[in-house]
Write a structure and sequence with these properties.
Largest sheet: 6 strands, mixed
Number of strands: 21
Mean pLDDT: 82
Helix content: 10-25%
Order of helices and strands: HEEEEEEEHEEEEEEEEEEEEEEH
Structural class: alpha/beta
Strand content: 25-35%
Low-confidence stretches: 1-41
Number of helices: 3
Length: 304
């Protein structure tokens, strides 16, 4: 977790030095239209107003893309509005958020030993209070980012929109406290490194998911059990590797393609390549003969 935070901090400093494309709008226009409150397991909170966000109007003029989160916003339980300026919020893209905004609470929130600052020190430094939970409205169909989509060290709970088909790579910045998630109803792909180093204790991947890409849940130190759906077709390298407490895995009785999802043709395109991988390696508690057989019966040969 700490080395990842250091890399993120260095990347942020580089972005600050180089400048970046500024989003079109920041807040304004009054509160957003109502659009569904928090969903369990998220508790408390209310839909945020437009002034909490940096956003753009799409070129077509019929929808809004959120690109950042204002420095003076409230933090805590963040419920993204379903509409801003009377238009539906259809996407979150933090790739071009100005330095110090976006959903990035890393640089400035750490002491010189890379430990998180206390709430009191965060307030004293004039930083946005920690974001602890986030609810995305069902109007959103795309969530993307740069180095990370959400780099929120105190995030514990996320509710994703029901129509989201793919969770972007590096969805969280090594979200060590993220332990609760409401999955989209239409989810098909969990991206590379999407939830690495998260705080999940049990995972039930929903039916409909076809691909779990490289490092998706790598290094989840509290994870004890995983249940995979019958729909899964491909599992990438290190997808569930280095989870020291993982002792139970429920697999579908079918052949699964193991390999890696990586750059093809000099980085212009990514794709799957079959081969030996270490999706379940580095898990010392996966010792039972039955659970190992259930995994290897799907075609896995990468060791434990």
């Amino acid at each position: 977790m700490r080395w990842r935070l250091l890399l993120t901090a260095l990347a942020a400093l580089s972005a600050a030095a180089c400048g970046g494309k500024a989003p079109a709008r920041t807040g304004g226009g009054g509160d957003a239209a109502p659009g569904g409150g928090p969903v369990e397991p998220v508790t408390g909170g209310k839909e945020a107003g437009a002034s909490d966000f940096i956003y753009e109007i799409k070129w077509s003029g019929d929808a809004v893309i959120i690109t950042g989160y204002q420095k003076d916003a409230a933090g805590g339980n963040v419920v993204i509005p379903a509409a801003i300026e009377g238009l539906p919020v259809v996407a979150v893209n933090t790739s071009n958020a100005p330095y110090g905004t976006g959903f990035d609470q890393s640089l400035g929130y750490l002491d010189n030993k890379l430990n998180w600052l206390s709430d009191a020190r965060v307030r004293a430094k004039g930083l946005t209070p920690y974001i602890t939970s986030m609810v995305f409205p069902d109007t959103i169909t795309e969530i993307q980012g740069g180095t990370y989509v959400l780099n929120l060290g105190k995030l514990t709970s996320v509710v994703l929109p029901k129509n989201l088909k793919e969770i972007a790579e590096n969805f969280t910045g090594g979200g060590g406290e993220l332990s609760s998630i409401k999955w989209p109803e239409t989810l098909e792909i969990i991206g590379e490194g999407a939830f690495d180093d998260s705080g999940f204790t049990e995972l039930v991947i929903p039916e409909g998911v076809k691909e779990i890409r490289d490092r998706a849940f790598w290094g989840c130190k509290k994870l004890t059990s995983v249940t995979l759906p019958g729909s899964v077709e491909r599992i990438g390298d290190l997808a569930f590797a280095d989870c020291p407490l993982l002792a139970a895995v429920t697999m579908p009785a079918k052949t699964i393609q193991y390999g890696t999802y990586h750059d093809l043709w000099q980085g212009f395109e990514k794709g799957w390549q079959s081969g030996v991988n270490g999706a379940f390696r580095g898990n010392p508690k996966l010792t039972g003969a039955a659970v190992r057989k259930a995994i290897t019966d799907t075609g896995y040969t990468g060791g434990f």
